[in-house]
From TrEMBL:
UniProt lineage: Bacteria, Bacillati, Actinomycetota, Actinomycetes, Micrococcales
Source organism of the structure: Microbacterium alkaliflavum
UniProt keyword Membrane present: yes
Pfam families, sorted: MIP
Similarity comment: family membership: Belongs to the MIP/aquaporin (TC 1.A.8) family.
Protein's name according to its UniProt entry: Aquaporin
């Protein structure tokens, strides 16, 4: 999950795209599957959210550790976009072709992950009817996504190791489940994937649109702030 830093992988694009497909897919499987399990274990909404957030934080950390050597473990279109934009001048970021491959793989993986979670719990795959979009959740997604992007840029530009990044990102998402009213989707691919489950973790298509808009808006703002806080270091590597 490196942004504007020397590449930690020189794997061919097909391998990186496969890793992004698996990473985003398994992340949504964890989110949706743990949400379905939580609904079956308790009728208390707070306890359900606790179970869901713990599983997601731990699962995300494991996936970063596993797949970062293959693809840098973005699993998130806004992270891949940040990588492309911040590395453009120094030619260290994703190229437009690689960016398109990453984002396509992430979205397809996320949808597949929701379908897989539904199947494991014998739950029909259906479009979610859960409306989540409000002015409060729009603001929450702005905060959640800005924090995630800023965290990643700060960690990678200060050359933090993959285990440190995995622990920090998992911890942030686990915490953001609780300090944001949106439960911190902070990821357009995950948001799209969660449309395909009418369960605890689902989101209705009409609500997904403002969620994704908020994620993109604040990701752009976070890039500017990160440039002030964490100036880029020179890096000769180029990723295609």
């Amino acid at each position: 999950m490196t942004i504007d830093t020397p590449a930690v992988t020189r794997a061919p694009l097909w391998r990186r795209a496969t890793a992004e497909f698996l990473g985003a897919g398994l992340l949504v499987t964890v989110v949706v599957g743990s949400g379905i399990a939580a609904q079956g274990l308790s009728t208390d909404t707070g306890l359900q959210l606790l179970e869901n957030s713990i599983a997601t934080a731990l699962g995300l950390g494991v996936l970063i550790l596993l797949l970062a050597p293959a693809s840098e473990a973005h699993f998130n279109p806004v992270v891949s976009l940040a990588d492309c934009l911040l590395g453009r001048r120094s030619r260290t970021g994703l190229t437009p072709v690689a960016l398109a491959a990453h984002i396509g793989a992430q979205i397809l993986g996320a949808i597949g992950g929701a379908v897989l979670a539904n199947a494991m719990f014998d739950t029909p795959t259906a479009i979610s009817a859960t409306e989540r979009a409000t002015p409060a959740t729009f603001l929450a997604e702005i905060v959640a996504t800005a924090g995630l992007v800023l965290l990643l840029i700060g960690l990678t530009r200060n050359r933090r190791s993959i285990p440190v990044i995995a622990a920090a990102v998992g911890s942030y998402i686990g915490a953001a489940y609780w300090f944001t009213s949106s439960t911190s989707f902070a990821n357009p691919a995950v948001t799209i994937g969660r449309i395909f489950t009418d369960t605890f973790a689902g989101i209705a298509p009409a609500s997904a649109i403002p969620f994704i808009a908020a994620q993109l808006i604040r990701a752009a703002a976070a890039l500017g702030l990160s440039a002030l806080l964490f100036p880029a270091r020179a890096a000769p590597a180029h990723r295609s």
